[in-house]
């Protein structure tokens, strides 16, 4: 999933806003969102440096919202 520091004033259902606590523990420098609809992979050689690490509890919440989003979209 893509992470962006361009946070809209209203966060859509397919995005997860990291809380201020998440930002402090992750080490990310700016307010950020996880774009649940942007599932991507990149070659590890393209990663220049690690900016932070999202806490495991937050990852579980993100995956829960992601799974809920997938189920909602398949029932349409």
General description of the model:
With 76 residues, the chain is α+β, with helices and mostly antiparallel strands. The protein has one domain. It contains two helices and three strands, in the order ββαβα. The chain has a three-stranded antiparallel sheet with strand order 1-3-2, with no helix packed on it. The protein is globular and about 40 Å long. The mean pLDDT is 89. Pfam families: PemK_toxin (PF02452). InterPro entries: PemK-like (IPR003477), Plasmid_toxin/cell-grow_inhib (IPR011067). One of its GO terms (molecular function) is DNA binding.
Topology:
Layout: E1 2-4, E2 15-17, H1 20-26, E3 33-35, H2 56-74
Antiparallel strand pairs: 1-3, 2-3
Helix percent reads 25-40%
Beta-strand portion reads 5-15%
Report how far apart the termini are.
22 Å
Structural class call reads alpha+beta
Poorly predicted spans: none
Strand order of the largest sheet: 1-3-2
State the helix count.
2
Number of extended strands: 3
SSE order: EEHEH
Please summarize the sheet with the most strands.
3 strands, antiparallel
Give the rounded overall mean pLDDT: 89
Shape summary: globular
Q: Give the C-alpha Rg.
A: 13 Å
Number of domains: 1
InterPro entries: PemK-like, Plasmid_toxin/cell-grow_inhib
GO molecular function, one term: DNA binding
Pfam family, one: PemK_toxin
Summarize this structure as a short list of keywords or feature phrases.
76 residues; alpha+beta; three-stranded antiparallel beta sheet; 2 helices
């Amino acid at each position: 999933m893509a992470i962006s520091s361009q946070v809209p004033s209203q966060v859509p259902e397919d995005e997860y806003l990291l809380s201020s606590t998440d930002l402090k523990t992750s080490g990310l420098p700016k307010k950020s969102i996880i774009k649940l609809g942007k599932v991507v992979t990149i070659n590890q050689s393209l990663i220049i440096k690690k900016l932070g690490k999202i806490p495991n509890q937050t990852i579980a919440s993100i995956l829960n919202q992601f799974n809920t989003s997938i189920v909602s979209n398949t029932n349409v």
